[in-house]
Write a structure and sequence with these properties.
- By secondary structure, this protein is of the alpha/beta class.
- It has one domain (7-274): Carbon-nitrogen hydrolase (Nitrilase/N-carbamoyl-D-aminoacid amidohydrolase), CATH 3.60.110.10.
- Helix content is 24%, strand content 30%.
- The protein is built from five helices and 16 strands.
- The protein has helices at residues 21-37, 68-80, 165-173, 187-205, 254-263; strands at 7-14, 42-44, 83-92, 99-106, 112-117, 123-126, 130-133, 145-149, 152-156, 178-180, 208-211, 215-219, 222-225, 228-231, 237-241, 246-253.
- Helix 1 runs parallel beside helix 2.
- It is globular.
- The N and C termini lie far apart (57 Å).
């Protein structure tokens, strides 16, 4: 009889990706080796791991799912016999000038285990700070993704998704016990909201939240907050790297998730008819 997995070691990587694609991927390779050497069962990279383009520029062409960038992460997973979450990669959309900002999970044999296409796009204008319009080049996905693995049931999301709790509720109701949020949160919004939102998503769903992040100045006008974090299901930040690039290693205790969900069965009390419904009026 195969016993259920009680937990696993996760590595969340903090990077400072730029428009130098080769250097970014070489750096990711080095961090993967470090994480594997530390015993990581799953290595998670931040959003835009291969390239952070200047706002308003197209950057490198989008690639198919079997393109060279995805192949490099697939080889990384196979080399280290570890699960690898390629934060996000720009995936080509046939017959479209736009792309998907896609988080891809690779199994230890290098195969694609899951693909999540970012659903919420970062279209904001912060007076005196910055203007971002992700939708100018990216098409939104339309499907939440939960994947059952030998490590446990994992829920996928990306960066700006973090502000939409209904997505994470859907992931938790579908069985996810570990929620991933590869991100490139801006320094301005990150200071105010990043940790609070991560803790809220963990507490609401009694799930671990793993959030590998971009950090520092990528180019003029684009600075990311960093603070790569792992939050436990009680809302405690159990591992964090505030600044600089590097690897955060910690243990995910799935028995704790199961115990807390038994003791505080919030997910069984969810009024599912409220999910996706609109408030009524008298």
């Amino acid at each position: 009889m195969t016993l259920p997995v009680r937990g696993f070691t996760v590595a969340a990587v903090q990077m400072r990706s730029t428009n130098n694609r080769k250097r970014n991927l070489d750096t990711a390779e080095a961090f993967a080796a470090e994480a594997a050497g530390g015993g990581a069962d799953l290595i998670a990279f931040p959003e835009n791991v291969a390239e952070v383009r200047a706002e308003g520029s197209a950057g490198s062409p989008a690639e198919p799912l079997d393109g060279p960038t995805a192949q490099r992460f697939a080889a990384m997973a196979a080399r280290h016999r570890a699960w690898v979450l390629a934060g996000t990669i720009a995936l080509r959309i046939p017959r479209s000038r736009k792309r998907h900002n896609a988080s891809i999970l690779f199994a230890p044999d290098g195969s694609v285990a899951a693909v999540y296409r970012k659903m919420h796009l970062f279209d904001v204008a912060i007076p005196g700070r910055a203007v971002f319009r992700e939708s100018s080049l990216v098409a939104a996905g339309d499907t939440p993704v939960v994947v059952s693995t030998p490590l446990g049931v994992l829920g996928l999301s990306v960066c700006y998704d973090l502000r939409f709790p209904e997505l994470y509720r859907q992931l938790a109701l579908a069985g996810a016990t570990v929620l991933f949020v590869p991100s490139a949160f801006t320094a301005y919004t990150g200071r105010a909201h990043w940790t609070a939102l991560l803790r809220a998503r963990a507490i609401e769903n009694l799930a671990y939240v793993v959030a590998p992040a971009q950090w520092g100045l990528h180019h003029a006008g684009r600075r990311s907050y960093g603070h790569t974090s792992v939050v436990d299901p009680w809302g405690k930040v159990v591992a964090e790297r505030e600044r600089g690039t590097g690897v955060v290693l910690t243990r995910i205790d799935l028995t704790r998730v199961a115990r807390l969900r038994r003791e505080l069965p919030v997910l069984t009390h969810v009024r599912r008819e409220l999910l996706g419904s609109r408030p009524g009026s008298d």
